[in-house]
Amino acid sequence: MFLSIINSIINSTIFWITSAVISAFYCGWYAKKHDDSWGEWFVLGAFYPFFISIPAVIFCTKPVIK
Fold this sequence. Notes:
Blueprint: H1 2-33, H2 38-47, H3 50-60
Helix pairs in contact: 1-2, 1-3, 2-3
């Protein structure tokens, strides 16, 4: 029972760390692609869950009008 709880905690921690890294790099890349602040979106992507940060960067990054 105790080992099951520890295993569950470790698995959820690994999941959240992996998703934070992926969403941070995705948000930074997407913002840079649209000439927005790369670092700001990278940090927000790292600290907010992916289901919040990825839609936020997609809908809030302003497209470049040439």
